[in-house]
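Note to self: keep these together.
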Amino acid sequence: MTATERPKLAMYWAASCGGCEVSLANIHEAILEVDRHFDFIFCPCLLDGKRADIEALPDGAIAVTLFNGALRTAENLDMARLLRQKSRLLIAFGSCAVSGGIPALANQHGLQHLLETVYRTSPTLDNPQGLVPQPVSHVAAGELELPPFLPRVLALDQAVVVDYGMPGCPPEPEQIVALIRQLASGAPLPPPCSLLGCSARAVCDDCPREKRGVLTPQLLRSCALIPEPGWCLLEQGIPCVGSATRGGCAALCPSVAMPCTGCYGPLDLDADPGAAALTAIAAAIRPPAVELLAAGGAARPVPSVGLTDPLGSLYRYTLAASVVADRKPERQP
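Structure:
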């Protein structure tokens, strides 16, 4: 079989950290199966393919595109539309593409506030002229162009039709291998718009830590203590949303004493992810009134209960696709 007879596979990164490409590389020798079954034609991180090569293809010529990253710039949006046009299957690959991911947290303040913070007011900056990147800059050699930012970060399916989503930050290598093998085998895929590479069970179902039925008096940042091995992190006061998060990662973070932060998305797809996460956390907190009763009604300080960054904790990967996504920015441009 020649390369031209194999189905074409593409992978593209938009507003992302590159972790999804690293996860693909981490399938190790299984990458040979990708080469065996697919003509891997486009992946800016790994291959020297050009946009013009994609534009020259007939519509639908690419069998599968794994599109990772949120849509932050006009270029991201343009590439999403182009790859949708050229692909028979478009898969939102990773949390940023599925629901906006961490880039979408910028939506809460507005674009102007983002640029001011990143380029002018951050205490670690050395930018005495207060320069901010512009879509067009004039220099001695001519004009330099940068793709303009979109007004807000979008998940992939907010701009184009997406066939499937594969959550995770990033998707786990074994889940990628399973997807590649399923696609290569020609086996039937789930109904359109289904999630791939994840389970219908919560992260807690795969977590080796056990619950002891203890309510925590306060919430702590994960850096504030060394958690006791084998015991549920949330019961120790570390905000962990594993009970409200879809599994698929084998509970990797709690296994190494880091809380689940919800990268596989809500367990209940009809629920608001932040509300589900808040419910999971609130159920593990000892009500302050219990402290007062234990003291016989006498006044005494009650340990503070709260999240350092509520929006970033409850909507870390899902703000673009959540029910609060369209609220007005706290600070207008």
